[in-house]
Protein backbone atom coordinates (compact mmCIF):
# COMPACT_ATOMS: atom_id res chain seq x y z
CA UNK A 1 0.00 0.00 0.00
CA UNK A 2 1.62 3.23 -1.16
CA UNK A 3 -1.43 5.47 -1.66
CA UNK A 4 -1.35 7.11 1.78
CA UNK A 5 -3.51 10.00 2.90
CA UNK A 6 -1.90 10.62 6.29
CA UNK A 7 1.60 10.06 7.63
CA UNK A 8 2.09 9.72 11.40
CA UNK A 9 5.74 10.25 12.34
CA UNK A 10 6.69 8.59 15.64
CA UNK A 11 5.40 5.36 17.20
CA UNK A 12 5.27 6.08 20.90
CA UNK A 13 1.96 5.59 22.65
CA UNK A 14 0.41 8.79 21.25
CA UNK A 15 1.63 8.17 17.69
CA UNK A 16 0.57 4.52 17.67
CA UNK A 17 -2.92 5.31 18.96
CA UNK A 18 -3.25 8.19 16.46
CA UNK A 19 -2.25 5.98 13.53
CA UNK A 20 -4.64 3.22 14.57
CA UNK A 21 -7.54 5.61 15.23
CA UNK A 22 -7.15 7.46 11.93
CA UNK A 23 -6.91 4.16 10.02
CA UNK A 24 -10.06 2.88 11.76
CA UNK A 25 -11.72 6.20 10.80
CA UNK A 26 -11.30 5.37 7.12
CA UNK A 27 -7.97 6.98 6.21
CA UNK A 28 -4.98 5.22 4.66
CA UNK A 29 -2.15 5.83 7.10
CA UNK A 30 1.62 5.39 7.09
CA UNK A 31 3.22 5.05 10.54
CA UNK A 32 6.85 6.12 10.14
CA UNK A 33 9.44 5.26 12.80
CA UNK A 34 12.63 3.19 13.08
CA UNK A 35 12.35 -0.09 14.95
CA UNK A 36 13.71 0.42 18.47
CA UNK A 37 13.71 -2.32 21.08
CA UNK A 38 13.03 -0.63 24.39
CA UNK A 39 12.05 -1.80 27.85
CA UNK A 40 9.61 0.71 29.33
CA UNK A 41 8.77 -0.23 32.91
CA UNK A 42 6.66 2.86 33.49
CA UNK A 43 2.88 2.83 33.78
CA UNK A 44 0.20 5.19 32.51
CA UNK A 45 -2.98 6.19 34.33
CA UNK A 46 -5.71 6.64 31.72
CA UNK A 47 -8.82 8.51 32.82
CA UNK A 48 -12.39 7.42 32.00
CA UNK A 49 -12.61 9.49 28.80
CA UNK A 50 -9.37 7.94 27.50
CA UNK A 51 -10.51 4.42 28.44
CA UNK A 52 -13.76 4.94 26.51
CA UNK A 53 -11.74 6.10 23.49
CA UNK A 54 -9.38 3.12 23.41
CA UNK A 55 -12.40 0.87 23.99
CA UNK A 56 -13.89 2.35 20.80
CA UNK A 57 -10.72 1.15 19.02
CA UNK A 58 -11.34 -2.40 20.22
CA UNK A 59 -8.25 -2.78 22.42
CA UNK A 60 -9.55 -2.23 25.95
CA UNK A 61 -10.91 -5.75 26.40
CA UNK A 62 -7.41 -7.17 25.93
CA UNK A 63 -5.91 -4.69 28.41
CA UNK A 64 -8.42 -4.62 31.24
CA UNK A 65 -7.35 -7.81 33.04
CA UNK A 66 -3.87 -6.37 33.66
CA UNK A 67 -5.10 -2.87 34.54
CA UNK A 68 -5.78 -1.55 38.04
CA UNK A 69 -8.79 0.63 38.79
CA UNK A 70 -8.31 4.08 40.32
CA UNK A 71 -11.43 4.32 42.44
CA UNK A 72 -10.16 6.80 45.03
CA UNK A 73 -7.49 9.49 44.79
CA UNK A 74 -6.20 11.26 47.86
CA UNK A 75 -3.80 14.13 48.42
CA UNK A 76 -1.83 14.31 51.67
CA UNK A 77 0.44 17.16 52.74
CA UNK A 78 3.79 15.54 53.43
CA UNK A 79 5.65 18.80 54.07
CA UNK A 80 6.99 20.01 57.40
CA UNK A 81 5.92 23.60 56.78
CA UNK A 82 4.04 25.74 59.27
CA UNK A 83 0.99 25.97 57.00
CA UNK A 84 -0.07 22.51 55.89
CA UNK A 85 -3.01 21.64 53.67
CA UNK A 86 -5.73 19.30 55.00
CA UNK A 87 -6.10 15.80 53.50
CA UNK A 88 -8.27 15.78 50.37
CA UNK A 89 -9.98 12.65 49.08
CA UNK A 90 -11.76 12.20 45.78
CA UNK A 91 -14.03 9.16 45.21
CA UNK A 92 -15.15 8.10 41.74
CA UNK A 93 -18.47 6.92 43.18
CA UNK A 94 -19.30 10.56 44.01
CA UNK A 95 -19.51 11.32 40.27
CA UNK A 96 -21.27 8.08 39.36
CA UNK A 97 -18.23 6.07 38.26
CA UNK A 98 -16.64 2.85 39.50
CA UNK A 99 -13.19 4.29 38.72
CA UNK A 100 -11.71 7.58 37.57
CA UNK A 101 -9.57 5.51 35.24
CA UNK A 102 -7.12 2.61 35.15
CA UNK A 103 -3.35 2.29 35.58
CA UNK A 104 -1.79 0.24 32.77
CA UNK A 105 1.83 -0.92 32.30
CA UNK A 106 3.24 0.84 29.22
CA UNK A 107 4.68 -2.42 27.89
CA UNK A 108 1.24 -4.06 27.95
CA UNK A 109 -0.35 -1.11 26.16
CA UNK A 110 2.39 -1.00 23.52
CA UNK A 111 2.17 -4.76 22.90
CA UNK A 112 -1.57 -4.58 22.26
CA UNK A 113 -1.15 -1.54 20.00
CA UNK A 114 1.51 -3.23 17.88
CA UNK A 115 -0.72 -6.25 17.39
CA UNK A 116 -3.68 -4.06 16.36
CA UNK A 117 -1.49 -2.01 14.00
CA UNK A 118 -0.11 -5.13 12.32
CA UNK A 119 -3.62 -6.39 11.54
CA UNK A 120 -5.13 -3.07 10.41
CA UNK A 121 -5.58 -3.06 6.58
CA UNK A 122 -5.64 0.76 6.32
CA UNK A 123 -2.31 1.11 8.12
CA UNK A 124 1.27 0.34 7.09
CA UNK A 125 4.30 0.69 9.33
CA UNK A 126 7.50 1.97 7.67
CA UNK A 127 10.82 1.26 9.39
CA UNK A 128 12.62 4.54 8.65
CA UNK A 129 13.38 8.03 9.97
CA UNK A 130 12.30 11.34 8.51
CA UNK A 131 14.99 13.31 6.66
CA UNK A 132 13.16 16.22 5.06
CA UNK A 133 9.65 17.57 4.75
CA UNK A 134 8.20 19.78 2.02
CA UNK A 135 4.81 21.29 2.80
CA UNK A 136 2.79 22.42 -0.22
CA UNK A 137 -0.70 23.82 -0.59
CA UNK A 138 -2.10 20.51 -1.89
CA UNK A 139 0.18 17.89 -0.29
CA UNK A 140 3.20 17.17 1.90
CA UNK A 141 6.25 15.30 0.62
CA UNK A 142 8.31 13.31 3.10
CA UNK A 143 11.81 12.05 2.30
CA UNK A 144 12.94 9.16 4.50
CA UNK A 145 16.43 7.97 5.36
CA UNK A 146 15.92 4.72 3.42
CA UNK A 147 15.50 6.68 0.17
CA UNK A 148 11.70 6.51 0.13
CA UNK A 149 9.64 9.57 -0.83
CA UNK A 150 5.99 9.77 0.23
CA UNK A 151 3.33 12.26 -0.78
CA UNK A 152 0.42 12.62 1.65
CA UNK A 153 -2.40 15.03 2.37
CA UNK A 154 -1.56 15.48 6.05
CA UNK A 155 1.26 14.82 8.54
CA UNK A 156 0.87 14.11 12.25
CA UNK A 157 3.97 14.85 14.34
CA UNK A 158 4.18 12.36 17.21
CA UNK A 159 7.99 12.26 17.34
CA UNK A 160 8.54 13.59 20.85
CA UNK A 161 10.14 16.62 22.44
CA UNK A 162 12.88 16.85 19.81
CA UNK A 163 10.35 16.61 16.98
CA UNK A 164 11.91 16.67 13.51
CA UNK A 165 8.51 17.39 11.94
CA UNK A 166 7.97 20.39 14.20
CA UNK A 167 11.42 21.74 13.33
CA UNK A 168 10.92 21.30 9.56
CA UNK A 169 7.46 22.88 9.76
CA UNK A 170 9.03 25.98 11.33
CA UNK A 171 7.09 25.80 14.60
CA UNK A 172 8.97 27.14 17.61
CA UNK A 173 8.60 26.07 21.24
CA UNK A 174 8.75 27.51 24.71
CA UNK A 175 10.77 25.37 27.12
CA UNK A 176 11.52 25.57 30.81
CA UNK A 177 13.18 23.27 33.33
CA UNK A 178 12.66 22.52 37.02
CA UNK A 179 15.23 21.75 39.73
CA UNK A 180 13.64 18.31 40.06
CA UNK A 181 14.08 14.72 38.94
CA UNK A 182 11.38 12.05 38.92
CA UNK A 183 12.43 8.67 40.29
CA UNK A 184 10.13 6.05 38.73
CA UNK A 185 9.72 2.48 39.96
CA UNK A 186 7.26 -0.32 40.69
CA UNK A 187 6.94 -2.07 44.04
CA UNK A 188 5.01 -4.82 45.80
CA UNK A 189 3.50 -4.25 49.24
CA UNK A 190 2.14 -6.16 52.18
CA UNK A 191 -1.32 -4.55 52.42
CA UNK A 192 -3.88 -4.27 49.57
CA UNK A 193 -4.15 -0.82 47.98
CA UNK A 194 -7.95 -1.13 47.58
CA UNK A 195 -7.73 0.81 44.30
CA UNK A 196 -6.61 3.95 46.16
CA UNK A 197 -3.96 6.24 44.68
CA UNK A 198 -2.15 8.50 47.14
CA UNK A 199 -0.22 11.64 46.27
CA UNK A 200 1.95 13.12 49.01
CA UNK A 201 2.87 16.75 48.44
CA UNK A 202 6.44 17.34 49.63
CA UNK A 203 8.84 20.28 49.58
CA UNK A 204 10.56 18.84 46.48
CA UNK A 205 7.44 17.79 44.56
CA UNK A 206 4.82 15.04 44.57
CA UNK A 207 5.35 11.48 45.78
CA UNK A 208 2.62 9.58 43.91
CA UNK A 209 1.64 5.93 44.45
CA UNK A 210 -0.70 4.49 41.82
CA UNK A 211 -2.25 0.98 42.06
CA UNK A 212 -1.21 -1.88 39.80
CA UNK A 213 -2.92 -5.27 39.62
CA UNK A 214 -2.56 -7.35 42.78
CA UNK A 215 -0.61 -6.05 45.78
CA UNK A 216 1.60 -3.90 43.59
CA UNK A 217 1.86 -0.20 42.81
CA UNK A 218 3.83 2.18 40.62
CA UNK A 219 5.57 5.21 42.05
CA UNK A 220 6.68 8.61 40.79
CA UNK A 221 8.89 10.27 43.44
CA UNK A 222 9.92 13.82 42.57
CA UNK A 223 13.07 14.97 44.37
CA UNK A 224 16.10 17.20 43.85
CA UNK A 225 18.62 15.86 41.30
CA UNK A 226 21.23 15.09 43.98
CA UNK A 227 18.66 13.15 46.01
CA UNK A 228 17.66 11.20 42.91
CA UNK A 229 21.28 10.13 42.42
CA UNK A 230 21.44 9.00 46.05
CA UNK A 231 18.20 7.00 45.79
CA UNK A 232 19.27 5.26 42.58
CA UNK A 233 22.56 4.23 44.22
CA UNK A 234 20.85 2.56 47.19
CA UNK A 235 20.64 -1.23 47.44
CA UNK A 236 17.06 -2.37 46.74
CA UNK A 237 16.45 -3.25 50.40
CA UNK A 238 17.38 0.27 51.52
CA UNK A 239 15.40 1.88 48.70
CA UNK A 240 12.38 -0.23 49.65
CA UNK A 241 12.65 0.99 53.25
CA UNK A 242 12.93 4.60 52.04
CA UNK A 243 9.73 4.20 49.99
CA UNK A 244 7.90 2.59 52.91
CA UNK A 245 9.02 5.37 55.27
CA UNK A 246 7.97 8.11 52.87
CA UNK A 247 4.56 6.41 52.57
CA UNK A 248 4.26 6.28 56.36
CA UNK A 249 3.87 2.46 56.04
CA UNK A 250 0.35 2.91 54.64
CA UNK A 251 0.75 -0.27 52.56
CA UNK A 252 2.90 -2.17 55.04
CA UNK A 253 6.26 -3.60 54.06
CA UNK A 254 7.47 -2.59 50.59
CA UNK A 255 9.72 -4.39 48.07
CA UNK A 256 10.98 -2.39 45.07
CA UNK A 257 10.95 -4.42 41.84
CA UNK A 258 13.96 -4.10 39.53
CA UNK A 259 16.07 -1.03 38.93
CA UNK A 260 14.44 2.42 39.31
CA UNK A 261 14.73 5.02 36.56
CA UNK A 262 15.30 8.77 36.79
CA UNK A 263 13.82 11.47 34.53
CA UNK A 264 14.82 15.17 34.83
CA UNK A 265 11.68 17.32 34.84
CA UNK A 266 11.02 20.00 32.26
CA UNK A 267 8.11 21.44 30.31
CA UNK A 268 7.59 22.25 26.66
CA UNK A 269 4.79 23.91 24.77
CA UNK A 270 4.76 24.52 21.02
CA UNK A 271 4.01 28.01 19.76
CA UNK A 272 1.12 26.44 17.85
CA UNK A 273 -0.25 22.91 17.57
CA UNK A 274 -1.11 22.87 13.90
CA UNK A 275 -0.03 24.64 10.73
CA UNK A 276 -1.33 24.04 7.22
CA UNK A 277 -1.18 20.32 6.60
CA UNK A 278 0.66 19.49 9.84
CA UNK A 279 -0.56 18.80 13.40
CA UNK A 280 1.51 18.25 16.54
CA UNK A 281 0.37 15.76 19.17
CA UNK A 282 1.81 14.31 22.36
CA UNK A 283 5.19 15.54 23.50
CA UNK A 284 5.88 17.11 20.10
CA UNK A 285 3.22 19.64 21.18
CA UNK A 286 3.29 19.69 24.98
CA UNK A 287 5.16 18.10 27.88
CA UNK A 288 5.12 18.74 31.61
CA UNK A 289 5.84 17.10 34.99
CA UNK A 290 3.97 13.88 35.91
CA UNK A 291 1.37 15.50 38.15
CA UNK A 292 -2.34 14.63 38.23
CA UNK A 293 -2.22 11.94 35.49
CA UNK A 294 -2.51 14.54 32.73
CA UNK A 295 0.21 13.66 30.18
CA UNK A 296 -1.08 10.87 27.92
CA UNK A 297 -4.69 11.80 28.63
CA UNK A 298 -4.01 15.23 27.12
CA UNK A 299 -2.32 13.53 24.15
CA UNK A 300 -5.32 11.28 23.59
CA UNK A 301 -7.57 14.33 23.46
CA UNK A 302 -5.25 15.55 20.68
CA UNK A 303 -5.95 12.28 18.87
CA UNK A 304 -9.71 12.50 19.46
CA UNK A 305 -9.76 15.96 17.90
CA UNK A 306 -7.72 14.73 14.91
CA UNK A 307 -10.21 11.93 14.34
CA UNK A 308 -13.08 14.45 14.38
CA UNK A 309 -11.30 16.65 11.85
CA UNK A 310 -9.88 14.02 9.52
CA UNK A 311 -12.19 10.98 9.60
CA UNK A 312 -13.94 10.33 6.31
CA UNK A 313 -15.62 7.09 5.24
CA UNK A 314 -16.17 8.75 1.83
CA UNK A 315 -12.45 9.56 1.40
CA UNK A 316 -13.07 13.31 1.16
CA UNK A 317 -9.93 15.35 0.57
CA UNK A 318 -8.23 16.88 3.61
CA UNK A 319 -8.36 20.65 3.39
CA UNK A 320 -5.27 22.85 3.43
CA UNK A 321 -6.34 24.59 6.66
CA UNK A 322 -6.83 21.41 8.73
CA UNK A 323 -3.74 22.23 10.82
CA UNK A 324 -5.05 25.70 11.68
CA UNK A 325 -8.42 24.26 12.67
CA UNK A 326 -6.71 21.67 14.87
CA UNK A 327 -4.65 24.43 16.52
CA UNK A 328 -7.77 26.45 17.35
CA UNK A 329 -9.56 23.45 18.82
CA UNK A 330 -6.68 22.28 21.02
CA UNK A 331 -5.21 25.57 22.22
CA UNK A 332 -7.39 26.21 25.27
CA UNK A 333 -7.15 22.65 26.64
CA UNK A 334 -3.38 22.37 26.18
CA UNK A 335 -2.63 25.79 27.66
CA UNK A 336 -4.95 25.29 30.64
CA UNK A 337 -3.44 21.90 31.55
CA UNK A 338 0.16 22.98 30.97
CA UNK A 339 -0.02 26.12 33.07
CA UNK A 340 -2.20 24.43 35.72
CA UNK A 341 0.39 21.68 36.27
CA UNK A 342 3.18 24.27 36.23
CA UNK A 343 1.44 26.39 38.87
CA UNK A 344 0.77 23.42 41.14
CA UNK A 345 4.35 22.21 40.85
CA UNK A 346 5.78 25.65 41.60
CA UNK A 347 3.44 26.03 44.59
CA UNK A 348 5.03 22.91 46.10
CA UNK A 349 8.54 24.27 45.59
CA UNK A 350 7.84 27.79 46.76
CA UNK A 351 8.86 29.03 50.21
CA UNK A 352 6.81 32.18 49.58
CA UNK A 353 4.28 32.24 52.44
CA UNK A 354 1.31 33.67 50.46
CA UNK A 355 1.75 30.87 47.90
CA UNK A 356 1.64 28.27 50.68
CA UNK A 357 -1.45 29.94 52.15
CA UNK A 358 -3.17 29.87 48.75
CA UNK A 359 -2.40 26.18 48.19
CA UNK A 360 -3.56 25.18 51.69
CA UNK A 361 -6.72 27.31 51.35
CA UNK A 362 -7.52 25.80 47.97
CA UNK A 363 -7.33 22.23 49.25
CA UNK A 364 -9.32 23.21 52.35
CA UNK A 365 -12.06 24.65 50.11
CA UNK A 366 -12.17 21.46 48.04
CA UNK A 367 -12.44 19.37 51.21
CA UNK A 368 -15.26 21.50 52.61
CA UNK A 369 -17.29 21.92 49.40
CA UNK A 370 -18.75 18.76 47.91
CA UNK A 371 -20.17 20.43 44.77
CA UNK A 372 -16.86 22.17 44.01
CA UNK A 373 -14.96 18.92 44.56
CA UNK A 374 -17.31 17.09 42.18
CA UNK A 375 -16.83 19.75 39.50
CA UNK A 376 -13.06 19.42 39.80
CA UNK A 377 -13.29 15.62 39.56
CA UNK A 378 -15.42 15.77 36.43
CA UNK A 379 -13.10 18.30 34.80
CA UNK A 380 -10.08 16.14 35.66
CA UNK A 381 -11.68 13.18 33.92
CA UNK A 382 -12.94 15.06 30.88
CA UNK A 383 -12.72 18.83 30.17
CA UNK A 384 -16.21 20.30 29.97
CA UNK A 385 -17.81 17.24 31.56
CA UNK A 386 -19.14 19.16 34.56
CA UNK A 387 -20.92 21.63 32.27
CA UNK A 388 -22.40 18.77 30.20
CA UNK A 389 -23.67 17.10 33.37
CA UNK A 390 -25.14 20.40 34.59
CA UNK A 391 -26.91 20.98 31.28
CA UNK A 392 -28.27 17.44 31.37
CA UNK A 393 -29.56 17.86 34.95
CA UNK A 394 -31.31 21.08 33.93
CA UNK A 395 -32.97 19.38 30.95
CA UNK A 396 -34.33 16.44 32.97
CA UNK A 397 -37.12 18.36 34.83
CA UNK A 398 -38.15 20.00 31.58
CA UNK A 399 -38.27 16.66 29.78
CA UNK A 400 -40.34 15.11 32.58
CA UNK A 401 -42.75 18.05 32.52
CA UNK A 402 -43.06 17.80 28.74
CA UNK A 403 -43.63 14.05 28.91
CA UNK A 404 -46.33 14.53 31.56
UniProtKB/TrEMBL annotation:
Cofactor section: FAD
Source domain of life: Bacteria
Listed Gene3D superfamilies: FAD/NAD(P)-binding domain
Pathway as given in its UniProt record: Cofactor biosynthesis; ubiquinone biosynthesis
This protein's UniProt keywords: FAD, Flavoprotein, Monooxygenase, Oxidoreductase
Protein's UniProt keywords contain RNA-binding: no
Flavoprotein among keywords: yes
Limits of the FAD-binding domain: 4-315
Record Pfam families: FAD_binding_3
Family (UniProt): Belongs to the UbiH/COQ6 family.
Protein name: UbiH/UbiF family hydroxylase
Taxonomic placement: Bacteria, Pseudomonadati, Pseudomonadota, Alphaproteobacteria, Hyphomicrobiales
